[in-house]
Design brief:
Length: about 280
């Protein structure tokens, strides 16, 4: 597959965003940092990790879903978490650039694995989307081009959006889902509590997966409100064909409660830790 990040003519979206950033950056103290992050994208100084999301009924088997995480490899070869660079990219509306880089690299990984392992069952890869990408009218076109030119396995991309972001950008998110679902892309709401997006609207948005908020699942017991809330979310999702995922599962007791509730998947350090994608 031809890389979308080889030179300026092959990556017009990166050049465009970089030019926009240059015009909007006011604080010279951050100019160098922003340029460094843009250069890091071009030189693959970011690293992708994947955390398996397991079927609750068989938490030790192979996963058909994994969430993708990103880290920044600095000059000292140290991996920096998103908190070290997300705020800067967000302040200059550059997150869509990072999201596109992640999509490009995940597709390349899928193709490389399929080439070396012909009978490999590729997992669905959950890619977190920023507000910039949700609101970017060109983002869906970029995804379509990436899928069409690469001939990537269909249905292996799932885009994850926080419930709060979905509530704040419901109209543009619905447009994005309508454009990409026919291509096989899935969509998940993370940190779901029902506070910003009522369960009744999940199907109308076109959501495929709901990640039940960790605060609901923390120390859940049959007689507390968290258990009842998780049960209500799962039952409503189940009735509309939406899969549920318990996120940030760390204790065996929590996994047992998820099984009792009938939740479909589980994710967290108690299930599997993130590992380098490559």
């Amino acid at each position: 597959m031809k890389s979308a990040l080889i030179n300026p003519q092959d990556r017009p979206w990166l050049v465009h965003v970089a030019e926009t950033a240059a015009m909007t950056i006011k604080r010279t103290g951050e100019q160098g940092t922003v340029n460094k992050l843009i250069e890091a994208l071009d030189r693959d100084r970011f690293v992708l990790y994947a955390q398996p999301i397991k079927l609750v009924a068989s938490s030790t088997g192979n996963s058909d879903y994994q969430e993708i995480f990103i880290r920044f490899l600095d000059e000292e070869e140290k991996l920096l978490p998103p908190g070290g660079f997300f705020p800067i990219l967000e302040s200059y509306n550059l997150m869509s650039m990072l999201d596109r880089w992640v999509v490009n690299r995940v597709i390349r990984w899928l193709l490389a694995k399929r080439k070396t392992q012909g009978n490999w069952n590729a997992p669905r890869c959950g890619i977190n989307l920023s507000n910039d990408s949700i609101s970017d009218a060109e983002f869906s076109r970029f995804i379509k081009e990436q899928l069409q030119t690469s001939m990537a396995p269909p249905g292996k991309l799932a885009f994850e959006v926080s419930e709060a972001d979905a509530g704040a950008h419901a109209i543009t998110l619905k447009r994005l889902i309508a454009a990409l679902k026919p291509l096989g892309c899935g969509f998940a709401l993370t940190g779901y509590s029902g506070e910003f997006v009522p369960v009744e609207l999940l199907q109308a948005l076109g959501i495929d997966f709901v990640k039940i908020d960790s605060h609901i699942l923390t120390n859940i017991h049959p007689d507390d409100s968290g258990f009842a809330r998780a049960k209500s979310i799962h039952r409503t999702c189940q009735a509309t064909g939406i899969c549920t995922i318990g996120e940030f599962v760390e204790q065996p007791e929590t996994l047992e409660k998820l099984k009792e509730l009938g939740v479909d998947y589980a994710q967290g350090y108690g299930i599997a830790r993130p590992e380098p994608l490559t």
